[in-house]
Amino acid sequence: MHKEDPMGVQTEARRPPPEEDSIDDATRRFLDLGFIGEFSIVGPRRMRCGACREEPAAGEVKLLALERVDVATDPDDQSVVTALECPRCGARGVHVFSFGPTASMEDKSCFAALRNERGVGAA
């Protein structure tokens, strides 16, 4: 099941968390799957790979999986934890994007530009 998020990108529906799911919980799940690196935003539609330090356009960075995390106490505090792959060195890592009314333009533009490869090659 998919739902449309405020940035116009379909996201996987969140599975019910055991208690309150957090950014740390989602990040830990991706770390356990081998997404041990990190990515950062360096400008509009540009990201930096923590492994090779290259700065590819966000549209080149592969989005392999994501988990949406909402904070129950603040409906405006919305985040999506992403599992990404660098197009230059192949390193896999995590980045947390904010979305919704409090998201920065950099977060919105980079997230929207990612190369969506969720489910590609899945059996």
Would you spell out the secondary-structure blueprint of this structure?
Layout: E1 2-4, E2 10-12, H1 23-32, E3 37-43, E4 46-49, E5 62-71, E6 74-85, E7 92-99, H2 105-113, E8 115-116
Parallel strand pairs: 3-7, 5-8
Antiparallel strand pairs: 1-2, 3-4, 5-6, 6-7
Describe the structure.
- The structure is a single chain.
- A hairpin with a 2-residue loop joins strand 5 and strand 6.
- The strands form 2 sheets. A 6-stranded mixed β-sheet has the order 4-3-7-6-5-8, with helices on both faces. It has a two-stranded antiparallel ribbon with strand order 1-2.
- The chain is α/β, with parallel strands linked by helices and 123 residues long.
- Mean pLDDT is 84; it is low at 1-11.
- The two termini are 18 Å apart.
- It has one domain.
- It is built from 2 helices and 8 strands; from the N terminus they run ββαβββββαβ.
Name a few traits of the molecule.
single chain; 123 residues; alpha/beta; six-stranded mixed beta sheet; two-stranded antiparallel ribbon; 2 helices; 15% helix; globular; disordered N terminus
Low-pLDDT segments: 1-11
Widest sheet, order of strands: 4-3-7-6-5-8
What global shape is seen?
Answer: globular
| Computed CA radius of gyration, to the nearest angstrom | 14 Å
Question: Helix- and strand-based class?
Answer: alpha/beta
Biggest sheet overview: 6 strands, mixed
Mean pLDDT level: 84
Beta-strand content estimate: 35-45%
Question: Helix count?
Answer: 2
Give the fraction of residues assigned to helices.
10-25%
N-to-C terminal Cα separation, in Å?
Answer: 18 Å
User: Helices and strands, in N-to-C order?
Assistant: EEHEEEEEHE
- Number of domains as seen in the coordinates: 1
| Total beta strands | 8
